[in-house]
Design a protein that fits this description.
The structure is a homodimer.
Chain A lengths: L4 H20 L7 H7 L4 H7 L3 H11 L5 H4 L7 H18 L1 H16 L11 H10 L8 H12 L4 H10 L4 H28 L8
Helix pairs in contact in A: 1-2, 1-4, 2-3, 4-7, 6-8, 6-11, 7-10, 8-9, 9-11
The structure holds a DNA duplex.
Chain lengths: 209, 209
DNA sequence: ATGTTCATGCGATAGGTGTATCATGACGAG
DNA sequence: CTCGTCATGATACACCTATCGCATGAACAT
């Protein structure tokens, strides 16, 4: 057992709670000092637990759990489109609902990319778990390469960067933005299904095999 | 005529050149001091010309002109897919070729979004000009609403945010990333063409040819 | 209770941003 | 050439990040 586990856990929680509170109050980009003060902890300690302020924000935002994939897909059939729409709703409703937190998250991702910190970043990649879960009925029916293509193309329709693109760059409102994501998603799924048909899976075309 | 126009133009150029030089040397995120020193200008002056370091970077990156839409589309027929692939190539080749500059650009966009500066940001939205130019043959054949959907969905496949998503979050290499963007683009175009067929426009049949 | 360990607080340091003020002196019109 | 204008440089300030070394004292084993 680690030396002072409880104490450390308490401190960590305190910092995370403080960060979360600040975010909820609309501070999009809290400083380390703010967080430390709020957590009743010295600045040095805050740095001992998190690499930076945006690191803490990152943890908070990404730990505010979304409905997990299994739950989002409970009772869903094999209709890939419906499955994807469900997870898209979970992910994007969440993000478009909290643009501040989302942009702070974005910022953290960018920071990591800039200083080349090599952490695999399992959290930011979480959207792929949702996509994979939704795509599961199709898994065996596409070549590995095709599947990669589809997964990553779908990743372009969900996630924090989409918020930046549609809200900030294209200046859409959240509702219109959601229309766009579902449209794009539908298009990609349709293309994927066409790929499935093209290989073994499907009967219906007068195909030249 | 403004008071000391030439002097000011010279100073401005000097700062931009310095910024560009630093970027080309691989400094992804140059500080104001670095830029000012390199430009043989005091820090205060640098701030008189640009709001921030990333502002200067932004100007540089976005002014390094891409092939303009008309040129990219010269000699292209009415095949919307081909047209879009051309502009996608122009935009994304450029961005994936200079991830550092791109991320600095990203950073600037985010900064603007965070402090809510209301500038319309014609530069970041430039990708829509490319998309519109490529989409031109389809313009009259979709309802305004459908057209908006298609335009913005396509915007998800080009631009700086795509770099962040595919390179940083999904950890693809540039070549694989380009495969993904062209795939997604193809899917969206296909969907758009289906919309065209669904309304009056349908000229040629589902060519199993 | 006693001593060690280790998380913490405190303060200093080094560097970055962004703003303001003020003297200087180059510019350019007369 | 002269003189006022105005871009510039210098400097200071407030605040931020990120890191360091050192003293303190709570936590824990003995």
């Amino acid at each position: 057992m680690a030396p002072r586990e409880n104490q450390r856990a308490r401190t960590r929680r305190s910092i995370l709670d403080a960060t979360a509170a600040l975010l909820d109050e609309g501070r999009a980009d809290p400083s380390i000092d703010e967080i430390a003060d709020r957590a009743l902890v010295s600045r040095a300690t805050a740095y001992r637990y998190f690499e930076s302020a945006s690191d803490a924000v990152w943890q908070v935002v990404s730990d505010r759990s979304l409905t997990p994939p299994e739950e989002a897909l409970a009772g869903a059939g094999d209709d890939v489109t419906e499955r994807l729409l469900r997870v898209e709703k979970v992910v994007n409703d969440y993000l478009f609902g909290d643009p501040n937190g989302t942009r702070a998250f974005e910022r953290a991702v960018l920071g990591r990319a800039l200083d080349g910190s090599g952490t695999p970043d399992d959290r930011a990649a979480r959207r792929l778990h949702y996509i994979d879960a939704a795509l599961e009925p199709l898994a065996g029916r596409l070549s590995p390469h095709e599947l990669e293509l589809v997964r990553h193309a779908l990743a372009l329709t969900m996630g924090s960067q989409v918020v930046t693109t549609l809200l900030d760059t294209c200046r859409l409102d959240p509702a219109a933005a959601r229309d766009v994501t579902t449209f794009a998603l539908g298009a990609i799924v349709a293309e994927a299904l066409r790929l499935v048909d093209a290989r073994g899976g499907a009967p219906q075309l007068p195909e030249a095999s």
